[in-house]
């Protein structure tokens, strides 16, 4: 599958930069292209300069709202992020069109952190503009939910997240949620954590995007997972995960009480990788809420057989009994079995409920505070009424 990727704000741009890196890796290691165009959009010039892989020109690193913000961002005011995106949307759309083989792309992926200003405010506006222009292609959003500590220290965090989620879910074909906190390693520094988190967020897309692009028959599975399968699966609230099992070094525990009856070592490895994928999903969900799901097994060709695909399908069906399940195999990896799992069309998400509930209960306080600020501004204007001004 080929996606045109657009990162908005700092978080979105950095994750988009990871997609650019992944595309580079796909070209060199697998001779396929998965992200024909990768763009970063920000109100902050310094953030754009800090990216590594996205092409360093104005067409790919796009500064918006320069006149309004002086290139220094919008703080945490996502309303301002939205306003700027509305005014500068054409600049972004024009840039996207510079992508070589633009019409080969299967869809768009817009990315942002929900709690900030630029990304949170602009992501739904840009998604809407893309949808209006390119109705025949799906627009997906990848949204990073804030860290725990941000929610405790910054009131705007919860409010921005709720507003961003509501807006993007009403325009994007699917919203893939990733919860930053799930990727935090306590023993790493913040800076290292962020770049590690970004690569962990993007990694599950690796096999998923590459599988359908393979041209070499050696790497084409019995059941290829192509863009059509993905488009038919991804819809509404969505989460993604992947798990790995080493193929060569594994030792088999014979635990008869184990829930699944292992038929062979391969099947066991597959189930283990699938379990890891489900336990490491980008956001904790209840798979029973999924209306659609998919799994993709990538392993050495000799490790993939009908038995393993059936066993994994049965196991996934047990977890997600209400989902239409698609599957695919990708005989590519050398010594690892990787299982990628997506749960989509989720009818309920505890985390989204939490943001909506908390934000709703905060609304009266926020409105009162805004009214107080407006009153104070009026008071001070009133006080200055009899003071002469140097302007006409
Ligand atoms: P913006 O530039 O105004 O859109 O705001 P930021 O993108 O800097 O921050 C928005 C939110 O995204 C923050 O509150 C963090 O939760 C998250 N965030 C910021 N930078 C990163 C990053 O590099 N990776 C990830 N995963 N999350 C980030």
UniProtKB/TrEMBL annotation:
GTP-binding recorded as keyword: yes
GO molecular function: GTP binding; GTPase activity
Predominant place of localization: cytoplasm
SMART domains: Tubulin
Pfam entry (one): Tubulin
Tubulin/FtsZ GTPase domain residues: 2-205
One GO term (biological process): microtubule-based process
Subcellular localization(s) per the UniProt record: Cytoplasm
Positions that bind GTP: 10-14, 117-119, 150, 180, 198
PANTHER family, alphabetized: CELL DIVISION PROTEIN FTSZ-RELATED, TUBULIN-LIKE PROTEIN CETZ
Stated family: Belongs to the CetZ family.
Protein name: Tubulin-like protein CetZ
Source organism of the structure: Dehalococcoides mccartyi (strain ATCC BAA-2266 / KCTC 15142 / 195) (Dehalococcoides ethenogenes (strain 195))
Gene symbol of the encoding locus: cetZ
């Amino acid at each position: 599958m080929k996606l045109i990727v657009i990162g908005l704000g700092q978080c979105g741009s950095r994750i988009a930069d990871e997609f650019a890196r992944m595309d580079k890796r796909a070209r060199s290691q697998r001779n396929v292209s998965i992200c024909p165009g990768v763009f970063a959009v920000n109100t902050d010039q310094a953030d754009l300069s800090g990216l590594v892989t996205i092409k360093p020109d104005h067409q790919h690193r796009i500064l918006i709202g320069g006149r309004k913000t002086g290139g220094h961002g919008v703080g945490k005011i996502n309303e301002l992020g939205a306003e700027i995106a509305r005014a500068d949307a054409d600049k972004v759309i024009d840039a996207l069109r510079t992508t070589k083989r633009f019409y080969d792309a299967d869809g768009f992926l817009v990315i942002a952190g929900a709690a900030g200003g630029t990304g949170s405010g602009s992501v739904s506006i840009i998604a809407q503009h893309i949808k209006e222009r390119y109705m025949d292609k799906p627009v997906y959003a990848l949204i990073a939910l804030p860290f725990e500590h941000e929610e405790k220290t910054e009131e705007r965090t919860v409010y921005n997240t709720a507003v961003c989620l509501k807006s993007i879910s009403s325009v994007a074909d699917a919203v893939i949620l990733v919860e930053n906190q799930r990727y935090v390693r306590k023993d790493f520094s913040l800076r290292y954590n962020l770049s590690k988190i970004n690569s962990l967020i993007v990694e599950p897309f690796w096999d998923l995007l590459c599988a359908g692009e393979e041209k070499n028959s050696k790497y084409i599975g019995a059941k290829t997972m192509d863009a059509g399968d993905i488009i038919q699966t991804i819809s509404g609230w969505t989460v993604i995960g992947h798990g790995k099992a080493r193929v060569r070094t594994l030792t088999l525990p014979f635990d008869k009480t184990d829930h699944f009856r292992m038929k062979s070592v391969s099947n066991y490895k597959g189930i283990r990788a699938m379990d890891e994928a489900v336990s490491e999903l980008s956001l904790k969900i209840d798979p029973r809420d999924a209306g659609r799901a998919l799994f993709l097994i990538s392993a050495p060709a000799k490790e993939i057989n009908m038995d393993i695909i059936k066993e994994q399908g049965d196991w996934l069906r047990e977890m997600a009994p209400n989902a239409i399940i698609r599957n695919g195999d990708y005989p590519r990896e050398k010594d690892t079995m990787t299982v990628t799992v997506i749960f989509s069309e989720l009818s309920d998400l505890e985390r989204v409920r939490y943001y909506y509930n908390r934000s709703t209960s905060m609304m009266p306080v926020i409105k009162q505070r805004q009214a107080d600020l407006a009153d104070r501004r009026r008071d001070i204007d009133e006080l200055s009424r009899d003071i002469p001004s140097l302007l006409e």
